[in-house]
TrEMBL record:
This is Potassium voltage-gated channel subfamily E member 3 isoform X3. It is a single-pass membrane protein. It holds the Pfam family ISK_Channel. InterPro entries: K_chnl_KCNE. It is found in: Membrane. Its main location: membrane. GO terms for biological process: potassium ion export across plasma membrane; regulation of heart rate by cardiac conduction; regulation of ventricular cardiac muscle cell membrane repolarization. Belongs to the potassium channel KCNE family. Keywords: Membrane, Transmembrane, Transmembrane helix. It comes from Podarcis lilfordi. PANTHER family: POTASSIUM VOLTAGE-GATED CHANNEL SUBFAMILY E MEMBER 1, 3 (PTHR15282), POTASSIUM VOLTAGE-GATED CHANNEL SUBFAMILY E MEMBER 3 (PTHR15282:SF6). One of its GO terms (cellular component) is voltage-gated potassium channel complex.
Length: 95
């Protein structure tokens, strides 16, 4: 039984290998017909990297400003509702 399973696996691997080779040939043949000059592709890739970098910096600045604004607003709220500050404020107004 083990040898029968081994034979089936080998034939399956051979079929898979031949199918992958045929697919690779088809794709490489199609790519050769649609190929653009290398310089044009490199220029496009260069602009794509700059655009991605710009978007990442813009996102980081936006998130940073939101975090900074939120933490500053929380400090102001915490100062006003702090019991010690409320006591001192009331005490000073009584005197």
């Amino acid at each position: 039984m083990a040898s029968a399973l081994g034979n089936r696996t080998e034939t399956w691997l051979q079929k898979l290998d031949s199918m992958m080779r045929a697919l690779n040939q088809t794709l490489s043949h199609a790519c050769l017909h649609d190929a653009k000059p290398v310089e044009e592709e490199e220029e496009k890739d260069n602009y794509a990297c700059v655009y991605i970098l710009f978007v990442m910096i813009l996102f980081a600045a936006t998130v940073g400003s939101l975090i900074l604004g939120y933490t500053r607003s929380r400090k102001e709220v915490d100062k006003q509702s702090d019991p010690y500050h409320v006591y001192i404020k009331n005490r000073v107004s009584m005197i």
